[in-house]
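Our collaborator T.R. sent over the components below with a one-line note: 'Predict the complex.' Nothing else. No constraints on interfaces, no templates requested, no preferences about which chain binds where. So this is a plain run: every listed entity goes in together, and whatever single assembly comes back becomes the starting point for the next discussion.
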Amino acid sequence: MTIDATTRIACAYYNGSAATPHNVEVSLYGDALSIVDLESENPKEIYFPYSQCRYVKLEEQAFVYLQPSFASYLVVPVQHPLYLQLLSKISSEQTSWFQKLYKKNGIALFFAFLIAAAALLFIGYKTVPPLLVKFIPVQEEIKWGNQFYESILSDKEIDSSATELVKKITEHYSMSNQYPIKVAVVEDTTVNAFAMPGGHIVIYSGIICTMKHPDELFALLGHEATHVNQRHSLQMMLTNITSSYLLSILTSDFNGLGSTLIGNAELLRELGYSRKLEAEADWKGQEIMIQNKVNPAGMTQLMEALQAAYSDNGNWSFLRSHPVTQDRISESKKFSQQHVGSFDSLQAEQQTAWEALKKLYPEKPSSKK
Amino acid sequence: MIKTLYLQIKNTTHMQYALRFLGKGFELFKIQLVNLLLQIVTLGLYYPWAKANTLQYLYSHTTLQDHPFAFTGTGKQMFKGFIKAFFLMALILALSIYITVTFDQVWGLLTLYLFLFLLMPLAIHGSYRYRMANTRWKGIRFGYTGDRQELIKLFFSGILLTIITFGIYGPWFYMKLRTYIIENVRMGDARFSYSGKGGDFFVMNLAGYFLSIFTLGIYIFWWQRDIFRFFINNTRMHRNDQLVSFTATATAGGFFSLLIGNFFIVLFTLGLGLPWAITRSLTFVANNIAIAGDISLDEIEQQQEEFTDATGDDMADMLDFGFII
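Returned assembly:
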């Protein structure tokens, strides 16, 4: 049935100042509806544009709000002659993005969401962290690094005598022009070592146990120092912060953002770098060795020792984050072959320190039972 | 206790009011999907509008006497509030960092916690004023008439006593806070009251805690039921000398199927099923509150003011405590 604009049809109306319904007459026009409140003292026609109206369908009736304030509304039962026409007019006038999208098919929306989420994560990961790295001055990075270092080592025991020995051994080993490299040895049987932004390198005693030759220590430090020099750790942390921000967009939960920073210090222990960054740390580490006249073959020895340790026991944290692949070993071999030359052997003082260090953390006999 | 019982018997003889939740998991899912899509596109800035969309849906699908509630807050208001709350937080953070750098870390942290504590009652106050003023039923606005100064006093004296008594005062503090807040909630010219006492709350939780341990967690569902009962049965609505009382009808078995069901829904859908868990919970709550009394709801008159500053509500969001009732 078509409704003539002049047709007035009775409806229950709540005017927003009292909870009792008024009996009104409703008529529909092109872009607005009108009501006449028959119970008011001075009944006159009031117009409400459809674009300002909203409705909620609940069971057998629709509640049609006439203003954005939701103050006044009509109750229109399904069998009311204006029901369909009124709802479709209001629905077609909804212009917000939300309303437009909400009308779309659920499955289509879900796929749109998946695509948008993937795009957000991909673009965010690829572009944001490298951009952020450029904006952080070295001095700031060093300051952060010191704070993270304190928070991460609060539950770890630093072996000060081993740390002193490593300091002695590396006295003439220059690793960075930009960052003050500080090495700390932590008493922990886990085979692990990691670098923090700004220059702190933490070595677990477990990894010292696997070493046979001081060159392996130089190789490890060269590798970790490269992570520092190339700001890999900073980049990784920024990637984590970015991803937790991106995830908070996806889960609309903005509460945990603050704690992410702290959590990141912990992640340094476990999380690995990408293969590309690892490879870079390997050959740049070997370059550091050459600059210091240390035989770059130490890198290969270190990797082989680690691989042996990996097959030996389960404490292979370092290897989980720095997987020693055959690729890496052969790359480091190739590098050594290209850079043959004369290398300095350790001075007496350093040799004594190395021997003392190995006395503290000797190689374990193979633990295969 | 006897008096409460008497009042309930007296009032249930008059009228029953139907509270229902008609929201569907799939529709809420769709709303949140659209919200997320828009949040992604706006890099998160859509958040306040998304919140408004969700609240509007949940309110409008909750009915009392077959008439829906309406949430009249808008994304724009909450966005303004969000910006204000954000800058306030940033200011506090900056101040504490400044103090840490120039003086000492301990003073810096103290400043931070002091200000965050100070913000809490302000956030509660602001949040209630905003949420209540933007809740309507049959066009009648709710309201919150609490006084900010009084809430601050109540809050800090409570915190102080809780600290001095090593936390024992906690339940009393919580009930005092709840009483103050609920007694200042208005629905037009009707007001609410709350009579839960700290001592009862303490004993109930103590028993619940130990019984849950002894029964390896099985008692948790009875404990949940008791808490729900305690909150609902102690709440009343008054208008002139008329009264409406609320009675919880939830059982431990009901809580069991609700909580375990929600757990599996969320687990097996990797979180995608959260909207279904939400609608299940709200349906459960609405179905398990019996409302009876002699206030004629149709006679309630508009009395509460408009209030559009959402800063407190957004602050409560940032401080990570949800709506208290």
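Summary for T.R.: Residues 9-102 of chain A form a domain with the PH-domain like fold (CATH 2.30.29.30).
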